[in-house]
Each structure stands twice: as structure tokens, then as C-alpha cells.
Amino acid sequence: MAKSHTDQYLENNRQYAAGQALHKPAYPGMQPIQPSKRVAVVACMDARLDVEDLLGLQTGDAHIIRNAGGVVSDDAIRCLIISHHLLNTNEIIVIHHTRCGMLAFSDDLLKAGLEGDPAAEKLLGQATKRAFTSCRRCASTPSAFHAFRGQLEPLDGPRDAKQMERLSWDVRRGMSSILNHPWIPTSGADAVTVRGFIYDVDTGKLEEVSYPGPMGSIG
Ligand SMILES: [Zn+2]
Predict the structure, then answer these.
(1) pLDDT by residue (tens digit) across 160-185?
(2) pLDDT on residue 2
(3) Distance from the CA of 70 to the center of ligand 1, in angstroms?
């Protein structure tokens, strides 16, 4: 089978982790609106992830959809549908990463803290080492924060087996959301492929998450 662009980006990542800069930051001149490598990436907004650099993407190669966690949320699905059906992408890459902030809180805890629950405010203040200030009740709130499932960890806690299990679980959940969406074709001439990874912020390396794979004790 021919090497996919994702395979090429994995090779680029090995070079990146070894210290090479592959992304060219210069303006490349006018380019078509369709991503030239037909790739769409969903990745966490974490400041330590430079998605262009860590994959060796060049300007014009790929769509990059970022949010807290790299979660395949309703909005990420919206972007992927537009990316595929209108702009011709057919390879999707989902990237979570070690030490992610989404491991350190739960949706219920953050909501309680924002609504002024003193115990939640205290816990969030301790977890984040900043004064957590409640905003009280509000009519316009996100329907979900999509914090990762499983037992909470300290903010920026180092990688361990439990952390990798929680991250892998959410990568697989996201891949499943894409693969099972009726408006994202996964067979036939118009099919997209999906692969998921965990980026280790301590090493700069991507590790692939098997799919399907064990959902473990989480869920
Ligand atoms: Zn993150």
C-alpha cells in the first residue's frame, strides 16, 4: 500500500523530536483553498503543541482544528464535514497529548466552581495554583467541557500508565465519533481514513493509538 501523508508526517515527527525544524515559516505565495495534502488534524490547544512543526506541515497542506483537549466535539465534527465535503480532505489525524489539562478537572467540578460552589472553587484554585473566581449562574454556558473521563490528576502531572489509558480512551472515543458519523464516509470512493495519536510533550514524539482498542476501566 502506498505511504499515506500521515505516514510521512510520522516520519517528519521523528525528525522534529530529534531537533530538526521542518515547517517553513515563510509565506509560500498564493495557494488553492483545498489543503494540498488532503489532511485534517484535530489537536489540543495546549501551548506546547506546535502542530505545524511537530508534523512538519507546510502552509497549505492541512486543516488544523484545535480546541481544549483535541476533543472530537460537535464543533470539530462540523469542521470535519466541511473540510471533507467542501474542501476535499480525506485523511484525518486526531492528536491528544501527555500532561493535558483536561486530565485535571471534571465537567461537574468546573461547572460547580463557575456557579460559585465554595468547595469546588477551593479545589480548582488548589489544582491550578491561581485564585479561581466564580462567575455565578449564567444562562449562556457551554453544554459540556469534555474533560477526560477517569480519576482526576494534578495539573501537568507526568505521564504514567493511567494517564495514557485515559488519553487513549478519549482518542478512541473521538475516532469512533468520526467513523460512526453518517455524514463522514468511511467506505467507497469518497472514504476518509482516521488515525489517532498521543503526543508526548516531554519528548516531542507521537505515539499511535490502536483502533479499535481496549476501553479499559474507563467509560
Ligand atoms: Zn491538552
Answers:
(1) 999 999 999 999 999 999 999 999 99
(2) 77
(3) 7
Q: How many A from CA of 31 to the centre of ligand 1?
A: 30
Task: Residue 39: name the closest of 72, 57, 62, 13 by CA.
Answer: 62
Amino acid found at 64: I
CA of 50 relative to ligand 1 center, distance in Å: 12
Q: Residue 140: its pLDDT value, please?
A: 83
> How many A from CA of 190 to the centre of ligand 1?
31
pLDDT tens by residue, 117-130: 999 999 999 999 99
Estimate the crossing angle of helix 107-114 against helix 118-128, to 10 degrees. 110
Cα distance from N-terminal residue to C-terminal residue, the chain: 35
C-alpha 171 to ligand 1 mean position (Å)? 12
Give me 46's grid cell: 495546549
Cell 454556558, residue?
141
Residue of 128, 172, 146, 130 lying closest to 67 (CA atoms):
146
Q: How far is the CA of 145 from the centre of ligand 1 (A)?
A: 13
Q: Rounded CA gap, 67 and 170, in Å? A: 14
Q: How far is the CA of 24 from the centre of ligand 1 (A)?
A: 25
Give me the pLDDT at residue 138, please. Answer: 79
Give me ligand 1 centre to Cα 100, in Å: 4
**Distance between Cα 49 and ligand 1 center (Å):** 9
Residues 65, 42: Cα–Cα separation, whole Å: 5
- Cα–Cα distance between 13 and 174 in angstroms, integer? 22
pTM of the prediction?
Answer: 0.96
